[in-house]
Amino acid sequence: MEKEKEKIENPGGIQVLPFHKTQEDAVQAYQAFYSNRPLLPRIFLKESHIQEMQGGYVPYFLISGTADVDAVYEAQDTSPAAGPGKIRKIVSDYRAVRKATVDYYHLPVNASGQIPESFMKNLEPFRLKELIPAEDSSEKDQ
Prior knowledge:
By secondary structure, this protein is an alpha+beta fold. The chain has helices at 23-34, 47-50, 117-120, 134-140, and strands at residues 15-16, 60-83, 86-110, 132-133. The chain has a domain at 13-59 and 112-140. Helices cover 19% and strands 37% of the residues. The two termini are 36 Å apart. The relative contact order is 0.21. Residues 1-11 have low confidence and may be disordered.
C-alpha cells in the first residue's frame, strides 16, 4: 500500500498580494513609456519582445513587534534676552530622559537580494487587506 503524501497547507502562514495589473496593462504602459523616442533601438518596440513580459512575486517579510525605548539626551535651549544696549543670548543646558514603547505592525522588509532597493520602494504601500494564502494565488492570477 502506498502512503499518500500530506499536502502542507500554507507553510509558515505565507501570504501573497494578488496582481493588480494585467499583462495588457503592462504592455500599454511599456509602449507609452517608450513612444516618441527616436533614438531607441527598434528591438525595444517589437511586439514579440513586449509579449515576453510576465509578472512575478517579490518577496517581503512583514514584521510586527514592540520596541521599548529608554533614551537620555544632552539638550540645549537658546533664547534671546534684551539688555541695556545689547542683545544677549541665554543658553540652558539640560538632560532629557525619554521612555516609550512603540508597537509596529506589518513593517515591510525586502527579502529579495536580487532586486535593487530603489525598485522595491516603488512597490509600497501594500494593500494588506488583500493578502491571500500563497496556495490560492496561482488560481486567482490566471
